[in-house]
Amino acid sequence: MKSFFEFEQRGTTYRKEIMAGVTTFLAMAYILVVNPLILSDAGMDRDAVFTATALTAIFGSLLMGVLSNYPIGVASSMGLNSFFTYSVVIGMGIPWQTALTGVLVSSVLFIILSVIKIREKIINVIPEDLKYAIASGIGFFVAFMGLKNAGIIVSSKDTYVKLGDLGSPPTLLALFGFVIMVVLLVRNVHGGIFYGMVIATVVGMMFGIIDMPQQIVGSIPSLAPTFGVAFNQLSATFTPELLVVIFTFLFVGFFDTAGTLIAISTQAGFMKNNQIPKAGHALVADSTASLFGAVVGTTTTASCIESSAGIAAGGRTGFTSVVVAGLFTLALFFSPLLSIVTTEVTAPALILVGAMMASQARFIEWEKLDVVIPAFITIVAMPLTFGVATGIALGFILYTVIKVAKGEYRAVHPIMYVLTVMFIAYIGYVA
Known about the structure:
It is built from 17 helices and 4 strands. The protein is mainly alpha-helical. A hairpin with a 3-residue loop joins β2 and β3 (160-163).
């Protein structure tokens, strides 16, 4: 096992990998609660979606670990499940059964693009400075999510965001967990983020902030209401409206995963000569997981940025992903225990992981104006628009425009020109 996952080459141990897997799972576990809630608003059976979400995370994470040997968890994309429900089903009035067919078709296209290595080629031609900007921008995005989930930052009608009520019990618990994690990390305690989450959970239950689970073991809900439904509406996929939906699933999922893969590879030190080793294997894994998810009854999957928490805890190989898959398997039987993994517990981990990832900005050539502008826009647009793909799109467009304006159009890879045109169309659509 150690040889297969290259423990020695990557300087890791079973203890580190297991700790990292547990940390990643805890950071991802909310998907088992949130995804069924969101998709139930589209009319889907909540219990069936819970099972589909867990099975997809098991399949995707296991495939990611074995195929690519990357410590990345795979699960339904939080952005695309919201798009599925509120934009496609509720906004456009498309039945969820038909929309799920759109997920199925886009997943097949994902696999084709991955197998013929077009996705890998695109990722590898992205300029190095933009890769660092993407990794850093996702760090700010993750930290922003953590601050929001903790209640430290809340919405404001006048100033868009403002400081939340720091005296509320959930926010105090998040601040407590944050301080504990910081102390453990600066004292070089391996698994400090994980231990911090455990301590915060125990304290939360002691003070009544987190409810004690009513039971430990629960039955696994049936998949019958969602399984195979995506195949029933294939004849509707060629309508203009659904083609737009398919393209959006494909486009946003493509660059959400690309951004995550770049960020994770940079954080873990996998990036070599501006190339991501075995990127194709990772892309095939996540696209195949999307197809599996569509069949069992959930939306497009993606490589989860929460995996960065596991990497911060020491995860360096696919064994971390295998552990994640194993824990999602247990979660199918111990679903009542998931109620104690609250956002107040995971929020501090996201803030700290975001801080670590944002440090990648130091590698950007800040003295070059033609690099600084697209890199800066990429970074700030992700949290401010609450979209990884949007930040990447704006950065790519600016990079190409500036290079052409400087007369350095030959320095821009032809693929970048194609992507720029696509990004312009995408921004025009989402705007």
